[in-house]
Fold these 2 entries.
Entry 1:
Amino acid sequence: MAPSVKQALGLSAAVNSPTEVYREVPFVALPRQYEEEREAILNCVDRVFRRGVFVSLAHLEELESRLADACGVRHSIGVGSGTDALFLILKGYGVGEGDEVITPPNSHFSTTSSIIHAGAVPVFADVGDDQSIDPARVEAAITPRTRAIMPVHLTGRIADMAAITDIARRHGLLVIEDAAQAFGAKQDGRAAGSFGDAAAFSAHPLKVFNAAGDAGFITTGDGELAARLRSLRNNGLKGREQVDEWGYAARLDVLQGEFLLMRLDRLPDLIARRRANVASYQARLNKTHVYFPEDGEDQFSVFQNFVIQVERRDALKDYLADRGIKTAIHYPVPIHLQPAARSLGYGNGDFPVTERQAGRILSLPVHPYLSPGDIDYVTEAVNSFFESV
């Protein structure tokens, strides 16, 4: 059956009004990415299957070299996921029982779980208005047991690394960047992944730089750490017949590596599209009702998500959904208030900025396949919600 005019235009009738027509604006658009890259993707699959080599560290060397160059560091190590990357860095540095790691409570759960699984204790520090960890709170959280600071470059915006690395240097602490959402981001002309002792990146399908499944990588300038991580990700093997220490099956597989190598050349254009979408939002949204941090001259964010902060967030989310606009919340319940975190001893009121933001944050669609009309439609809907209050 032929599609209707509304379907062909990507429009649908409103839920509550049979006479109004609404545009469908998806939060993610991976099928559109496939349409744009179909030939290149199939070529990747064909190369890997023709070789018949699916797990091979040698086949990752070109990708790893280019990732290291992109971040301005000496070493990159491909691993199975961003969570693997965080965990392996901690293990590689021997962070474990008796150690504390300072990190924010408003990240994805894997930031904290990697610390827990390494045997260390996560110590949370509250964030600032821009959702990045507050350096003053970091310094206040340091104890004799503190071993590392793990800032999170949330939404693709780099945390205040000048202040954080200064604190770490004065106290003799490691800095481990959770850069899962920030590949391609810059601060003061330096790339995410180049500020700390090591950094963890995710290439999950929903990331700006994405694979077609779980994938990740580590960057570091520490050659000794890099050598150990290359062994740890590969079951601790030295060669094929010798195990120097017990390791993990945490390799990046060859097919995902091929996808990432192909997409690396396309990344600047995809980031530019996201940044253009955000610039359009920022120019049009009513700042009386909508708050969002803006990049200064020193910041170049990649906008894994475009997060606004508003009152009556849940009502706005429903209002947009009724008009075909998909949104998300990253993240509605802070980590310190999750059931899994009860043993850490935190409660309501411990991190007031994070807790307040958790009730106000809303991620608008920002993927690179939005049209100017989509941006106008979303912006007009957000502004009209507050005008009608």
Entry 2:
Amino acid sequence: MHRPLYDWFIETLGIYPSHQYEFARLNLTYTLMSKRKLLELVQKGLVSGWDDPRMPTLCGVRRRGYTPEGLKLFCDKIGVSKRDQLMDIQLLEWCVRQDLNARSNRYMVVQDPLKVTIVNYPEGQVEWFDCPLNPAEPEGATRKVPFSRELYIERADFMEDAPKKFFRLKPEGEVRLKYTYIIKCEEVIKDADGNIVELKCSYDPSTRPGGGEWRSVKGTIHWVSIPHAKELEIRNYDRLFTLADMSQVPEDKDYKDFLNPESLTLATGWAEPALLEDASGIAVQFERTGYYVKDADSTPAKPVFNRTATLKDSYKPE
């Protein structure tokens, strides 16, 4: 149809011609959005596939444990723009963390274990404590956590030569084992090379929550019972690239030169048994550590968990 006739037709019928608006692509720091470059990462085996939790794909972020609610909150925060903009990935992580903080179940997992033996606790005795699944709902659901004579704590929660403001465990110092008793470090056991391999501690039975006397100490640490702990493979994911703005790769460099060698680190974790029974369908919180989701590679014999986000971040949205 000739243009004059087309204009007459539109005007006569009172139809307004359509107009196409083009919006800018969402760019994230430390992330690539180019399909060609993402395909190259997959084909060269630099990531495990399109669903690698470091990839900015729907299957990737789903495997990472990002929730639809967290992604919707992120979209509400950034809006839609016609101009190119670079959004801070910390805002995305903050939005996911905000959603999971309100809804995720809590469990205790130790990733760098140090053995603790409670010398005055009866051998063979086991107590089961009712612990909240979410402290935000103190009257809500609980899980059973076993307590025994031999425990694991995080190695970072003990310091032999501790500064004055170190409120975790130290020689002759006291801490509360979360949800249970106050313990005191009586002896530090070292191997032939001088490495700390075990702590001999005593517990105060009168400090059991809900009974006896309540005694306050400044430090509270998480732990797991060694006879009941379940071994996990933990995949700690971080940013895929080390350069914040991947559109600013220098001309004498290739984008692959900025791949983050620490974007995936593997660890072995020891978890309370209730974790493997979780059926919430979303990422859970490893207490004092971060948010983790069970991976598709997980099996009953070898549970695998991916880190969704760290527990805290200094980032605050404007």
